Every structure is written in C-alpha cells, then in structure tokens.
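Hi R.,

As promised, here are both runs. First protein below:
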Amino acid sequence: MSNRYDEGFKLLVVQQCLHDDTSLREVARQHGLDHSLVRRWRDRYRQHGVAGLRKQYTHHSATFKLQVLETMWRDGLSQRQAEALFDIRELGAIGRWERQYHSGGLTALEPKRKGRRPMTKKPPSPPPPPDDERSQEELLKELAYLRAENAYLKKPRCLDPGKGGGDAGQKAWAVQGLRHEHPLALLLRAAELPRSTFYYQIQALGVGDRYASLKMRIRAIYDRHKGRYGYRRITAVLRQAGETINHKTVQRLMHQLGLKSLVRPKRYRAYRGAEGCAAPNTLQRRFQAQRPHQRWVTDITEFKVNGQKLYLSPVMDLYNGEIIAFQTGPRPVFDLVKGMLKKAFARLMPGDRPLLHSDQGWHYRHPSYRRLVVEQRILRSMSRKGNCLDNAAMESFFGTLKAEYFHLNRFDTVEQLQRGIADYIHYYNHHRMKQRLKGLSPVQYRTQAVGAG
C-alpha cells in the first residue's frame, strides 16, 4: 500500500513527525494517511535512514525468516518493532511466517513459487519385493513402524480436547505420550510432524505448568484490587515483591486467565472559552509540585442513585495526588465547599501557603469563599471559562473514581454510596499505586519523602 508514495513524500511526512511539534495522528490527518502507515515510515527511517523509505521488492529466504522470528521471540519484540528492525515492508508478513513455522517448521517458510506449478509425472514406484526376498531386519523395521503408527492413530481418541494448540499441538501431545513405548522418529513419521515443530509445541505446552504459581499471584492481585488493575500495575506490584518479570509476560498470562481491567478508558473533550474575570489562571496546567501543600486543585462532581443525587467536593494535593480533604452532601450548596475547606486548612502547617485552583463555578466566586481563602493567605487560581483541561488533574480523579468504583457497583441508597466513596478515597490514598509515584500510593510516597528529608 505504501508503494503508491514516492521517497520524497515519505521523507517529508517523517521529518514533520520527528522535528515539528505535531503528533503522529495529526500529521497523518493533515496528509490524509492512516496513522499506522505513518508510524511504520517513521520506525523504518529511525532504523535504516532514507534507505528504509525506498521501494523494495525482496523475496526472503527461509533462513532469514527464521532469524526474524527467533530475534522477535528472544528480545520480546512486537511484530511492528521486528518489521522496522529488519526493514520488512509487507504488512502482516511476520505474523504469517510465525503461523507457518508453528504448523510446518522450517520447511513451511520456504518461498512459494508463484503461478501454476508445472505438471510432473511421478515415475511409478516399484512394487515391494515379496516377503521371502526381504531381510529379517527390514521386516522388523516395518513391523516397528506399523506398531508405532497403530498406537498413534489410537492415541488421539483419548486426548483431552482442551490440550494442545491446534492440529500441530494435538499431534505433539499424542507423540509425547507414546515416546516411552516407541522410537520418536517412527512416531514423528506416523504423525507427519517435523521434529522442530514437535519440540516447539512441547515447550509451548509446558508454559502453563512453568507459570502456574505466577498465575495464582496475578489472580490474587487482580481480585484484591477488584479488577481495577491492568497488566502494567500488576507487573509493578510483582516487581515490588521481588519478582523479575516482563510486562508482556504478565499481559499474556492475564489473557490466558481471562483477566482484564474493568476500568473504562477516560477521554476529555473541552471547549476553549473566553478568559474568566473571577481570578487569573495562575496554575497554567502545571500539575506538578515540589513539596506538599504547594498546589491544590478542587471541584465538585455529581452522582445519581435511584433518582437521588449526591455531590462530592474534594481537594487534591498535586505533590502526590492525595485527596487531603473532601465533603459529600445531597445538595451543591456553599456549605459543601466550606466544610471541605475547613478540613483542608486543618492539614496546613505554619508557613504553608498553597495555590488553590478551581473552575469558575459560583461556589468559588462566592464572597464567603474569597474571604476564607484570603484569611489563610492562599492565592486563588481559576480555569478559563468552558475549559475543563485547565483542571485536568481533578477531572482525572473523578473519572478514576467513577470508573473504578461507581460504575462497578450497584447502590440501593445514597447513604450506601456515601460510605463507599469514603472507603474508596481511603483506598485511593493509602493502597492504590501510581506509576508516576514510582509504584507507590500517594500516602506511601509522601511518607517516604518526609522520612528521606
């Protein structure tokens, strides 16, 4: 598909991706291209320079294909990474080679002759000599093969249909079960199974036993966090426990176990409105802090249970993402924010003067709100009108709370939800690990930093 474009056009697109401050998807959209095609051009250029963008018509040998597959398996590369590393232009070629090798071994990787094959007449095979003219050794060899073939043909009837990986896996499983009774060479001949494919399938069938204990730990971590953790967080938990494990292995084992994070992906959409006049946007989307109580963010969100509503007003410390105070109530009145502020101010130490960022809701423009903030000598900051990304850290917490708790549970009353939110916030602060906090929970990160200081 990429052969339609000349080298100069590809180079222009790749340089725009690498040197301009534009995302890959945006570059693809500007040129009317698929973003996966642009990504392949960029990866080839990084690996092979301009030569990786030139048209290429190559027939790969079976040895080269096997080298690509072995490198990909050994180094844990994805098919896209292997294509870029070996400058393979045909989309999906590596996946096809992998299937061919697993089903037929090295011989299946030999290039196929295109077009119709010429008709060749096989010479008639000579009739077997009479039994009285064949040696005793030949008769014994034939008898051994017939016994092995007969045993192999009976074996699949007793196989567990859940074992193995397709036809090759079933054949390998049957041969493995008969190795103690018949020579391996005769069994492979009866099964029409290459030796290399047999050993590969036996190794693959043994993976489940090798990772049995690891699978139990993965399921325990998944259940302990009620399905909120995906393979990345589970990998981090295992590494904290001293397990040296690759995240792709955890991902593969979770797929085998049928485990998948129940958290829905979160997306943000915003409208860039006019600048508000209540307070300037002093935060300027700087969602990091060098110490506790340096920058705070706050907002209000709504929940509905059986026609009743519950409102949550939390304050987050951007130093570690910890919810330092929150207030819930059935109505979004100012007392909701006032109660939350008093709890947050109680956490301050002498000399702490945090920047408090919010949106332009009426609560935060209320005279009482301004008076409470001024009394604590705290600087106010507000998002631009209609732009929720200016308070993305707080919006992200709301999305996580609803995805990991609210949407995964059923509630009969608002009081039940109110108690559950308090429990979840405690879990979020003390137990839920964050990647950007070096795999620690917010409280663990703050405690570790204070102890180091």
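And here is the second one, sequence first, then its structure tokens:
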Amino acid sequence: MRKDIHPEYREVVFQDTSSDYSFITRSTMNSEETIKWEDGKTYPVVKVEVSSASHPFYTGKKLFVDTAGRVEKFNKRYVNKK
C-alpha cells in the first residue's frame, strides 16, 4: 500500500440531535467538535439528524416529521389540479 494517501480511520462519536442518542464507532469522518465519552477519553463528535434511535423503521413509529418540508413542497407542486 502507498503511504499517506488513505484517510485516518479512528473512533468517532455519532450524536443523534433529534433523540439525544450517542454511539461510538470507527469512521474516517472529520469533525472540529469533541466530546468526552464514558470511558474518560475525548473523541471527535459528528452530529446526525437520524439514527436507529429516531428512524421510524427501527422505532416502529409510522409518522416521520420531515424537518425540511420536502413532502409538502412536492405535493404542493405536483398535485393534480382539477
């Protein structure tokens, strides 16, 4: 393998902003923010809007609130007007 061409693969904390759920995994994502984890170490934190703790498929909730209003915007634009 060639040196210095691969991104750094390290432990990163992903934090779900909608459900206040956090988990640690390995990733190449970069972040300026850091968080002190339960083990006392400091890790970079990446904030996400949807994770397994808030996604309707995993939670069993039928209703999914679209923060950007994309569904309403689509329906408004392409609804059949009679």
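A quick note on the second one: Helices lie at 56-59, 70-78. Let me know what you think.

Best,
J.
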